[in-house]
Write a structure and sequence with these properties.
Chain A is an alpha+beta fold. Chain A is built from six helices and ten strands; from the N terminus they run βααββββαββααβαββ. Chain A has one domain: Alpha-Beta Plaits, CATH 3.30.70. In chain A, a hairpin with a 5-residue loop joins strand 4 and strand 5. Chain B is 24% helix and 17% strand.
Chain lengths: 235, 741
């Protein structure tokens, strides 16, 4: 992955404060509604085919009565060294110059190698054509493609909102700044545990928080260079 | 928090922000769907602000619409309660509006009751039928009245229905709102001389040490979005030390899972834990409020040493937590306990003197003495042109008879029943009495267990299609009145129930009711109420901010009116009566050999009491603690399960002391006492659409009555393996630390 990029292009990153996250899953539903993610029903869900671009990982430690629980929202990490990118035979997934891992739906042929390689299990495959019982399809977001069967999908950091934010900044003849772009999950978070912005901008919130002594990344030792930074629980 | 009063009013391109502007904007322009096609711009997002209707908290929402379709709901950043955040249920609201199983228009029963045969009728016929039936019922002949029951006691429909029924001397009944008002108990006693107290607000954001006695404030307690946001600030706000949080309850809820310490006290013993803490604080002289000498003595029986075995919490733990609480800079105790247990929590706050202090319990006046001109809860809206004189005063206080459970309503023999905003036949209590009523009208938007056995269905709009005015309290106690307005034109041939009643009244020929409620529509009533709020001078108009979404909500925020606390510190004298009641109440729960386990029935954060079980997003949302989707389960402590030879996923039968039982998959759950089992509410519908129907079990049927939340039970293994659909991390595996397969 190239290190060079135009200094003007924002590099998108997200910070999640695990001390604030309560595991409520508001982000999960908000993401589904914003990104036209279908529900699959109980039979397919039982086969592990439900799709949550963002999910809450929950870990139990200890035994009764000293049970400790940790909640962690896990979504596509938009890795700088994404393991999913080099294995796609048709180059349907690539790294953009804004640091996003992009998925091109109409290029994907459904080998599912990318999902196989992803250590975070954040890629989902459309085994069937999505179905919305009428009139639920009226609620679809017109700004987001609806994927057909045979296509991989995953979190895009709400690219549709990124584009809107960038357009707005361009209209106002300035750089993108904090507040221009808010993905659906970040917007709805009940405890305001999530932050999103341009980590190449030293003034941004994500820049500031990434330097916290609580900051860490998931599975860092794999060398994926993820762009989602977690702030550990506690002081 | 800065004092802020404002009104943001909606209007496309309005320069003056008045809802009833004299600028000559036709009223139709307030709703984009009614804009003539040549003025409506496709491809553009129109945002409408409204109020969420998924629970009683009343968070503000903004809804994105394009080309006459709504495609996203967000929290309204301007609303004091939720400040832009929104929970999972609120996000799923579009599945209510566009649900495939909505009732699409008025219907009358065509076969026998419950057969499921319906004939579509016109609104004219429906209104005429209702009017005719009401005319038939003579309220004075002793054979029974007509009754209107609503689950939404405070909206415009309740306002109209109450006056409508009372004008005809018929009955009007309102169910207590879910999460009913916390009894002010001890606080009122302590602040003697002060007027009636409203709902207390817990200032969690500014507390440094929080103890919750079973209050699941991150999930279902009172106003979860508001308190969740406060919790975020509690943990990490600028210039503030990280707060410490302890949860005391027999089951590890999501809220308890976020606590720094979970204390699994015996079920029902929470109040005793609070009292033990009070005793420690008083005996070690850590109390800030003076306590009378005889109170020391009264408290002795509640010392940790005396009650440790009853509450099953080690003595040292109680003492440590009590000391930490009393010594904390800003301690705060909250609880989800019924009277008299709630008084124990109030006492804990009183002795550390956190009343009306930052990080403590904020107390406000309510009712007629409040500075707020329109006291909406309780009295309903009284608008200019209306008066209570025109309608017969009902014997119950506030003019509204309130019931805490549906079965209470059926104590009177009614000849006719109209049900709105409630699904009492889901729980099936009182079913025989209910079915004995000769004529039943349902206003439900969905075919649920209650409308299935009705005779006439006049479907209401969903909350995204209605007009209403909602009142809620923000985190600092400021009262917010927010508008509910249609975000789109109605999707089906439904009508707002308030409008239906107004039409029925017109059909019946006006009279006292027409004088009492001189309005043509729900919308008119709401607009009038908003104008009155404006004219009473509590807000100022705001210009719409350029570039922002061009539809803003109407939100009126009143100043918080904190109650004056006593300046002279009289020593607290504990009421020996309530202490005795508490002691008695705690000892009532007796495990027997036949029913050794306490079944805890807890409200599911996604389904609520079952009302959101018809939404596919919520059914497919993995339960945060168990990861289960599309089904039911019973949580069992792994050690208990091992002694009974029950493995994860085994079918078990849960039988309780009221004689009923259910079969449900067992789920090994580390976060529950060995002598308890737990089941969430919400599933077990026999109707209510394709996503909810015939799925899972309803544990509320196992309780002794609808007020209780736990009951003694036993568990037996039934042959076979049930299908537990779980997402992602397999709970059992993560507990046993098996390798990922």
């Amino acid at each position: 992955m190239t290190e060079e990029h135009s200094s003007k292009k924002p590099q998108w990153a997200m910070v999640i404060d695990l001390d604030r996250c309560t595991g409520c899953e508001a982000c999960v539903v908000a993401c589904r509604v914003e990104n036209n993610i279908p529900t699959v029903g109980p039979e397919e869900a039982a086969r592990g085919r439900s799709m949550n671009w963002i999910r809450i990982e929950r870990y139990f430690e200890g035994e009764y009565p000293d049970v400790k629980v940790k909640f962690m929202p896990v979504l596509c990490q938009h890795c700088e060294e994404a393991p999913c990118e080099p294995v796609c035979p048709v180059y349907a997934t690539y790294h953009t110059d804004e640091g996003l891992n992009a998925q091109v739906y109409n290029r994907c042929v459904g080998t599912r190698y990318c999902a196989n390689n992803c250590p975070y299990t954040v890629r989902f495959f459309n085994f069937f054509d999505p179905k919305w019982d009428a009139p639920l399809e009226k609620a679809l977001n017109p700004e987001v493609s609806v994927r057909t069967r045979g296509v991989m999908e995953k979190c895009t950091f709400c690219i549709q909102r990124i584009r809107k934010g960038e357009e707005k900044a361009k209209e106002e003849a300035r750089d993108v700044r904090d507040g221009d772009v808010t993905p659906a999950c970040v917007q709805t978070c009940q405890t305001k545990a999530m932050y999103f912005g341009n980590i190449a901008d030293p003034e941004s919130e994500v820049s500031r928080l990434s330097k916290s002594n609580r900051a860490s990344r998931l599975l860092e030792d794999l060398g994926t260079k993820p762009k989602v930074i977690y702030l550990n629980k506690g002081d | 928090m800065k004092r802020r009063e404002f009104i943001i009013l909606s209007g496309i391109g309005a320069t003056s922000a008045s809802l009833l502007s004299a600028c000559g904007h036709p009223e139709e322009k307030l709703i984009p769907a009614f804009i003539p096609d040549d003025e409506y711009v496709p491809g553009i997002d129109y945002w409408k602000a409204s109020t969420c209707g998924m629970c009683d908290a009343g968070c503000g929402i903004i809804v994105r619409t394009r080309e006459h379709k709504a495609n996203k709901i967000e929290g309204n950043p301007l609303h004091p309660v939720n400040r832009g955040a929104l929970c999972a249920r609120g996000q799923a609201g579009l599945e209510v509006l566009y649900n495939p199983d909505r009732i699409k228009g008025p219907m009358k029963r065509a076969g026998e009751r419950g057969q499921g045969k319906w004939e579509e009728i016109s609104w004219d016929e429906g209104i005429k039928t209702l009017a005719d039936k009401l005319r038939e019922v003579d309220p004075d002949n002793g054979k029974g009245k007509a009754c209107f029951i609503t689950g939404d006691a405070e909206g415009v429909t309740a306002h109209v229905a109450r006056r409508f029924m009372q004008a005809q001397r018929q009955a009007f009944v309102a169910e207590q709102p879910h999460g009913a008002m916390e009894p002010s108990g001890t606080y009122a006693d302590l602040l003697s001389g002060v007027v009636k107290l409203g709902e207390p607000i817990a200032d969690i954001a500014n507390a440094t040490y929080l103890v919750s006695f079973g209050a699941r404030f991150l999930e279902t307690w009172k106003s979860p979005v508001m308190y969740s946001q406060a919790y975020g600030e509690f943990r990490s706000a600028h210039g503030k030390v990280r707060g410490k949080f302890t949860q005391i309850e027999p089951r590890l809820s999501l809220t308890a899972a976020n606590a720094d310490e979970w204390i699994a006290a015996s079920p029902g013993a929470e109040a005793l834990v609070a009292l033990a803490m009070v005793q420690v604080i008083v005996r070690e002289g850590l109390n800030k409020a003076p306590v009378s000498a005889d109170s020391h003595q009264m408290l002795e029986e509640f010392s940790p040493e005396n009650i440790s075995s009853t509450i099953d919490v080690p003595v040292e733990k109680i003492i440590r937590v009590a000391r930490e609480f009393a010594r904390a800079e800003r301690p705060l105790a909250i609880g989800d306990l019924r009277s008299p247990d709630s008084s124990a929590v109030h006492l804990l706050n009183a002795i550390v003197e956190n009343l009306n202090k930052p990080g403590g319990v904020l107390l406000f006046e309510s009712g007629k003495n409040s500075k707020n001109p329109l006291s909406i809860p309780g009295n309903g809206l009284i608008l200019q042109g209306e008066s209570d004189e025109h309608v017969g005063k009902s014997p119950a206080h506030d003019g509204i008879e309130r019931i805490s459970n549906f079965v209470q309503a059926l104590q009177h023999p009614y000849r006719m029943l109209m049900i709105h905003g409630s699904n009492p036949m889901f729980a099936k209590r009182g079913r025989e009495d209910y079915l004995a009523i000769p004529f039943i009208v349902s206003f439900s938007s969905f075919m649920d267990e209650t409308s299935e056995v009705s005779d006439l269905i006049l479907p209401d709009h969903t909350y995204l299609e209605r007009w209403d005015l909602h009142s809620s309290l923000g985190p600092d106690g400021r009262q917010a009145f927010s508008l509910t307005q249609p975000v789109l034109e109605p999707q089906f041939n439904t009508r707002q129930t308030a409008d239906v009643l107004l039409a029925v009244a017109r059909e019946m020929g006006g009279g006292a009711f027409a004088e009492a409620v001189p309005f043509d529509s729900a919308r008119e009533i709401v607009e009038k109420a908003v104008t009155e709020l404006v004219s009473l001078g509590h807000g100022k108009n705001l210009e719409p901010v350029p570039g922002e979404p061009n539809e803003k909500g109407v939100v009126f925020v009143g100043e918080p009116t904190p109650v004056k606390t006593e300046t002279e510190r009289k020593p607290l004298s504990l009421n020996s009566f309530f202490l005795r009641l508490l002691r008695q109440h705690a000892s009532e729960r007796v495990a027997s050999v036949n029913y050794p386990l306490t079944l805890i029935v807890y409200e599911h954060a996604g389904f609520g009491n079952g009302v959101s079980a018809n939404l596919p997003s919520i059914q497919e949302l993995p339960d945060p603690m168990t990861s289960v989707m599309w089904g039911s389960w019973v949580e069992i402590n792994p050690k208990t399960a091992a002694t009974m030879g029950i493995a994860d996923g085994d079918f078990v039968e849960v039988t309780t002391t009221n004689g009923s039982s259910v079969r449900v998959p067992a789920l090994l759950y580390p976060g529950i006492r060995p002598d308890c089992i737990a089941m969430p509410t919400g599933q077990g519908h026999s109707s209510y659409g394709r996503y909810a129907r015939y799925r899972g079990v309803d544990p509320t049927a196992l309780l002794l009555n609808s007020e209780e939340t736990s009951v003694q039970s036993r568990l037996t293994k039934v042959g076979g393996k049930a299908q537990l659909i779980r997402f992602g991390t397999d709970l059992q595996q993560s507990m046993e630390k098996k390798p990922w397969r």
